[in-house]
Each structure stands twice: as structure tokens, then as C-alpha cells.
Amino acid sequence: MYTSLIRPLLFKFDPEKVHHFTFKTLKFAFKIPGVEQFFKKRFAVNDKSLEREVFGLKFKNPVGLAAGFDKDAQLFNELGSLGFGFVEIGTLTPKPQEGNPKKRLFRLKEDAAIINRMGFNNQGLASAVERLKKNKKRVIIGGNIGKNKITPNDQALLDYQKGFEQLFDYVDYFVVNVSSPNTPDLRALQDKEPLKKILFALQEQNKQKPKPKPILLKIAPDLSDEQLLDIIEIVQETNIGGVIATNTTISREGLQSENRKEQGGLSGKPLKSRSTEVIRFLSQNSKQSFPIIGVGGIHSANDALEKLEAGASLVQLYTGFIYEGPRLIKEINQKLSAKK
Q1: Is the pTM of this model over 0.85?
Q2: Which of 13-17, 204-208, 336-340 comes out lowest in average pLDDT?
Q3: Which top-level group of life is the source organism from (predicted)?
Q4: Which helix (H) or strand (E) element contains residue 17?
């Protein structure tokens, strides 16, 4: 029903407006008695064999929602009812920011892809925290943190520290986002020395807590093998919880759609092979020494299985969720359940 009826209708309108409309609709719908149970019955797969314990957390299933969808922590409980094992909010910055000028979100229908240059648009940490205080603890929540556009790179650490401190009591794990292509100079923070500085400082902050929480690093798919080897060394040296591979790409290789030349990060099917290559490289060259969350181009149960077999412990959806709808979550979990 989604791909044959709902998606064609939604895809007739501006993607960013559709996103906000969908949020409002779901928020309203879930207030109606019985709707939450309907979605759970239709899409959730309850099977103990799907449970995963990764970086000290117990996930009811390995399929999560990637950051960027629920930026401001507005819909995490409702999204959890669609069958996700975890939901990652953000990217959140200390101060609210508008992001880049519109139009900044583009569908590439022929490629089953999306280009975005949103630029960390969000309402800021304080606004998200107020909503997270009302969390009913139905789903594991990750907090994806970044720096404000106006914050120079030599002061970026302070923004990440603020994000960590303000979200600490309300999320289950953290993700350090230094890999978005849509904030000027942000990817320079993936270089060895600035990245180590940020991660060591956050780990020191983490150690001061009675119960530290996992910190993960989200990396770009456009890194060279040499840079990926540096990432392995940094993860092992800083002893963070793991890696999310990968963010969006700046590559435009093989695209067919009219919007292919738009600036921004590309996600969806064209990213599938490269993100899997990065997962496999990290897993093999690190000798599976840290967990990996695999994301990028998952549009089918087989795509998810491919990432898990390449070395991912968990997977996340974003563009595949938009193109295929919530049935994709169910299909992945059903396929994994059947393999047991």
C-alpha cells in the first residue's frame, strides 16, 4: 500500500514539506486510541532471536532509524512503534540554527536516492531535552551531536562537550558527527589530530559519570583506505564504543536523475556498495575489535543482511525507509528471524 498508493502521492510534493506533514500526521494519529497497537501489530516483529547486545546495550532488534529523520526528538516513541529497535535523534547543536537556505532536499527517483544540504537545521539542545524528559523508555535512543555553523573548528570541542553534557541523562548512546558534508569545514575534524582531541576529551568527560555511556563516531564514505586505517587506530586508542559507517557521500558516480548535480550529501541506493565496502574494511582490518553500525543504501532485507555479513552489528535506515516505508523494517527483521 505504501509504495503503490501513499508514496506516489507524497512524492508529488516538496520533500521537506512532506516530511513536516508526515510528522504532524503521525503525531496526531498516535493520539487516537488503538492506533499505536495497530502499528505495532502490523510492523513490529517480536522474536527473542532478534535481540542484540552491542556496546553494553540490549537492542530488541538490530534495525534502527538513522539520524536526520527525527532531528529534534519529536517522534521517537511513535517511530519505535513502527518496529525499530532504536532511534537516533539529531544532529543536535548547542544553539538552534536554521540550516542552509531552501530548497535543500531533493529526491532522485530514478536512482532511489536523496540529496540533502540541510546544514544541521535543528531547534537546539534545550528544546530536544524538554521533549526527551517525557520519554516513556519504549525504545533505545541515540543522541547525534554536532557543532554550530558559526563555531570555528578550533572551538568545536566545546560544542560537542555541551551536547554530551546536556543530553547525557536522556539518551542511551552518543554519536559524534564530524562527517556531514553540509557544514563548512566540518569534515576537517575527521583528520587524525582534531578527531583524537574531541574523542579523548569526551571520553574523559564520560569517565566522570557514575555510569559512562557508549560514544560512537560517524564517518564519511569518502575516506581513503589510509584514512580508514587512521580511524581504526583512533577508535582503538580512544576506546570509544564503535563506528557508524557511513554518512552521506559527495560522490555523484553513476547517477541518472535530473537533480544529480545538486550540492549536498547523497544517500540511498547509490551508496549501498561503498558503505558496505567501508564496513568490511573496518571490520577486517580491526579484527572485529569494535562494533559497527551499518547504514547506507539499505532498501531491502538482503541489503541489510549484506551489511551484517560484512561486519556490522546493527543497521540503520533512512532513505530506504522513505522509499519503501515501514514494511522494510518488518521484512528485515522477519528475514533475520527466519535465519535463526
Answers
A1: yes
A2: 336-340
A3: Bacteria
A4: helix 15-29
Q: What is the mean pLDDT of residues 188-200?
A: 94
User: Which CATH number covers residue 51?
Assistant: 3.20.20.70
**Of 81, 180, 275, 313, which residue is the catalytic one?**
180
Q: In the beta sheet, which residues pair with residue 108?
A: 113
Secondary structure of the chain: what % helix, strand, coil (to 5)?
A: 45, 15, 40
Q: How many domains does the chain have?
A: 1
Q: Report whether 319 belongs to an annotated binding site.
A: yes
Residue reference for cell 537546539: 124
Residues 6+ apart with CB under 8 A from 173: 55, 57, 140, 142, 143, 213, 214, 215, 216, 241
Q: Does 148 carry a binding-site annotation?
A: no
161: domain range?
Answer: 2-339
The distance from CA 154 to its chain's CA centroid, rounded to whole angstroms, is 25
Q: What is the mean pLDDT of residues 174-184?
A: 94
Percent of the chain topping pLDDT 70: 100
